[in-house]
Specification:
Blueprint: E1 7-12, H1 15-31, E2 36-40, H2 43-47, E3 51-52, H3 64-69, H4 71-87, E4 92-96, H5 99-111, E5 115-119, H6 132-138, E6 141-144, H7 149-155, E7 160-162, H8 166-170, H9 177-184, E8 192-196, H10 201-221, E9 226-231, H11 234-247, E10 253-257, H12 260-266, E11 269-272, H13 276-283, E12 288-292, H14 296-304, H15 315-320, E13 327-329, H16 335-346, H17 349-366, H18 370-381
Parallel strand pairs: 1-2, 1-4, 2-3, 4-5, 5-6, 6-7, 8-9, 8-11, 9-10, 11-12, 12-13
Length: 387
């Protein structure tokens, strides 16, 4: 068998991880053309050259209660990956986000003598700070995407390095709304609201109805509004369409296969689930409203045990240090509250201009050529030079 040079194991669990993983795989390939990446990948990582052992969607589960329903399969998949990488040993293993899954995998592989890197700091600064000990056992290096994470982790004995966020490098500082609309085949004029009810099935099931009802309420107050929804896979598409047919079959909405970034860029305002989409919306400089629900039992545990240590749910608000994007969580995620917040943004151009300016300032400060920094850090860890 021919020498393939550098062998990298890599696992992403969801669409946001696929974005990050694709940037790192592409940069590793540029620096070390002989690299071979294999693990769990989505379409972007596969397009960058990563081989996948099974579909990324098999690991895409979020929430304490939701995980319990898929626990047997998740544990089986983790055992399968552990056995694969112990047998076909990579030079380094990279786990992307999904700490409840990947840290356990990384701990097992590190115990077997494989160097491990985790990308995206678990939010120990926000909730469940006791996880720091588990992180220390699992990783040789943790790559942080946000500047406030590295000092916190180093203070707690975790070998961490801030590399920046690849999305901040990929998205231009100025985004052309007209160009995005043209690319999607949408009319250049008129007000467009983007609806992003999540990239996981559980999110879609909990948020689709509320988001559609909010769109109906906005349309009733302002006839002529149009809507667009990016849907990352056929299952999410089917779930959203079923809710749409049940609640508002005549809603003037364009359903788009993937292309979430273009949908956000085309919009005048965005209603989004909490998660990476709030960061992407910030980087695209669009005003947003955030709606989110987790399983009621999960929410009960989080609140009763006081596990959450931060003021905001949306990363956009955490980065801004204030609630520029109004948040409507759990029982407050309903049309009679969310629709007025969207309409208030549409009716206040001065407020939107101030939000856009602040998002631009944050974006400029986050640009660090993150994929290159991450790839170099991985190579440095294993003593490998580019080339």
């Amino acid at each position: 068998m021919a020498d393939i040079g550098l062998r990298v194991g890599i696992v992403a669990n969801e669409a946001s991880g696929d974005l990050l993983g694709a940037a790192i795989v592409a940069e590793l390939t540029r620096l070390v053309p002989s690299v071979h990446c294999v693990g769990v990948a989505g379409p972007r990582m596969m397009a960058a050259g990563c081989e996948t052992l099974f579909p990324l969607e098999r690991l895409s589960v979020m929430g304490l209660t939701e995980v319990l329903g898929h626990l047997r399969e998740l544990l089986q998949r983790r055992r399968q990956l552990t056995e694969h990488f112990r047998k076909d040993r990579p030079d380094v293993f990279i786990g992307i986000d999904a700490p409840d899954f990947n840290l356990g995998l990384e701990r097992r592989l590190r115990a077997a003598g494989i160097r491990t890197v985790h990308v995206v700091s678990p939010t120990v600064w926000a909730w469940r700070p006791g996880r720091v000990k588990a992180i220390r056992r699992a990783v040789d290096l943790l790559l942080c995407l946000f500047p406030f994470e590295e000092p916190f982790l180093r203070q707690h004995g975790v070998p961490a390095r801030y590399v920046g966020h690849p999305l901040a490098d990929q998205i231009p500082l100025q985004v052309d709304r007209a160009k995005a609309r043209a690319a999607l085949g949408l009319a250049a004029s008129g007000t467009l609201i983007a609806l992003l009810p999540g990239s996981r099935m559980g999110e879609m099931e909990r948020l689709a109805a509320s988001f559609i009802e909010t769109a109906v309420a906005c349309l009733a107050a302002r006839p002529g509004l149009r809507f667009a929804v990016p849907l990352v896979n056929p299952r999410l598409h089917a779930c959203f369409v079923a809710a749409l047919q049940r609640l508002a079959p005549d809603l003037p909405v364009t359903l788009v296969e993937g292309r979430g970034r273009e949908v956000i860029a085309a919009a005048d305002c965005v209603l989004t689930a909490s998660g990476t989409a709030t960061l992407e919306t910030l980087l695209l400089k669009r005003p947003m409203v955030v709606g989110y629900r987790v399983h009621p039992f999960t929410y009960h545990l989080l609140t009763q045990l006081r596990l959450v240590k931060v003021q905001y749910a949306a990363m956009a608000n955490l980065l801004a240090g204030r609630e520029l994007a109004p948040e409507f969580l759990q029982d407050r995620c309903r049309a009679d509250l969310v629709a007025p917040a969207i309409l208030a943004l549409l009716d206040d151009p001065a407020r939107v201009a101030a939000i856009t300016q602040e998002y631009g300032r944050i974006h400029a400060g986050m640009r660090h050529d993150a994929a290159h920094a991450a790839a170099l850090a991985v190579l440095e860890l294993i003593g490998r030079r580019p080339g």
